[in-house]
Hints:
Layout: E1 6-14, H1 16-22, H2 27-35, E2 39-45, E3 48-54, E4 59-65, E5 70-73, E6 79-87, E7 90-97, E8 100-109, E9 112-119, E10 122-130
Antiparallel strand pairs: 1-2, 1-10, 2-3, 3-4, 5-6, 6-7, 7-8, 8-9, 9-10
Helix pairs in contact: 1-2
Amino acid sequence: MEQFVGVWAIKDSDNFDAYMQAIGVNFALRKLGQVAKPTLTISVEGKKMKMNSVSAVKNISMEMTLDEEFDETTPDGRTCKTKYTMNGNKLVQHQTWSGKSSTITRYINDGELTMELVVGDVHAKRTYTKK
């Protein structure tokens, strides 16, 4: 997980509104999500990871332990069962709630942090550059 450590600024976001709509985010929160330009700070200690996302819209802090399921309240208010695992060099986040599920895969590609978000047949992608 060490490859994810650092401060990352959003560069590109593709199909994020469709992803947010598919997971049930209301119109007003989706519009805020589109204009938010978060800076993501990631730190790692052993199997524990901390992520802090700061934007003009909302600040989010999250801590997790690899391979341990936990209850998560997402920024949009969903209550999920969430688990992070490593699949090779990819950090995979799996969320389940209300009979639905989403997978968010993070990996480093050409020095950038790529985040692929999938729910059902909806795919979105966000790219961050290291500050």
